[in-house]
Amino acid sequence: MTQDIFHLWDDAPEPKLVAYIYGASPTADGLQQTEAIRDIIKRFLPDASPRVQHAPPFRKRIPFEPAAPKLVTNLTQDEKRILLNRRLLVTDRVATFFQPLFPSPPTPAFCLQNYAAANTPESYREVEEMVRNCIRRELGEGNFAHFVTNHHDNVGGFEELPLQDAIEQTLEQLLASVNVKGFTMPTREGYARSIFAVEMFPLTNDHTIHEYWLQRLRSIKYYGDFGLAEVRESFNCNLCKAMNHIASTCPFPEIPNFPPPFSKLGTHNATTSTPQPAGTQPPLSLHSLFPSMAAQVKTEESKGRGTGGRARGRESGKGKGKARDVGRKAF
Fold first, then answer.
1. Beta strand 17-21 with 95-99: parallel, antiparallel or unpaired?
2. According to the UniProt entry, which residue ranges have a biased composition of type Polar residues (predicted)?
């Protein structure tokens, strides 16, 4: 979205959240998508009176279909909490994701490709150990100590330990959090190559500082038993809009009766489907689809309007220069 829209949404009254539809692409007017989001909220929360605002697409050439976010307002705090805890609502026609306007930094850090390892659990463990060794070697105690001393707001118990002990413990926790999953991607030559998605715990909730941290991680040369891996920022899914896989490996289509991508529904979207008979089940949620993924989402206002979200959206003036200075000092 444009910065103008971001500032308008930032200033919109609470309670508010962001919603986007599975498989939808940004459109000029957004009528079908806003109606579909309003409809699914009303079906799940009949007493709610949501207002759904559209954001015109941001004209930028990117190699994937981005999410088409909508701002949902005119909710009660309880309604907002319920939707954020559910995270995903599904009917037979449409699936809708919900998240805070200023979510916490994500755990996906980067992807590794052109590393001659098979897409197997054994390779995942080898890549995890390779990533840990390279981070430990490249960052060094001094660089990491400088960064984490200034940016550790997402690290529990840091202030309760002597500084050196806190730094060492945080480094070990960070390395222990490294988790690798893989998928295969077809090539033009007709064979499949392995892609390894690397996730790790974010040290800070400040989005600007977190992005500098990720840039530092992505600048490291990752070299292991199978050679030198090529770092890529992310692989993006055109369906669920995740950052760690592509559409052909998206897990949601594997769920029985999961709705098709919204873009394939044409004019027959969720608002034109036949109303549910009385007594039928409400829309499914992430709790029922992926119980292990249904973690509680923090919705405190201090998180929602923190410096991380503002810094990410406002990239002009004095704040931007200050952020660059912080990034240079960190390493």
1. antiparallel
2. 266-283
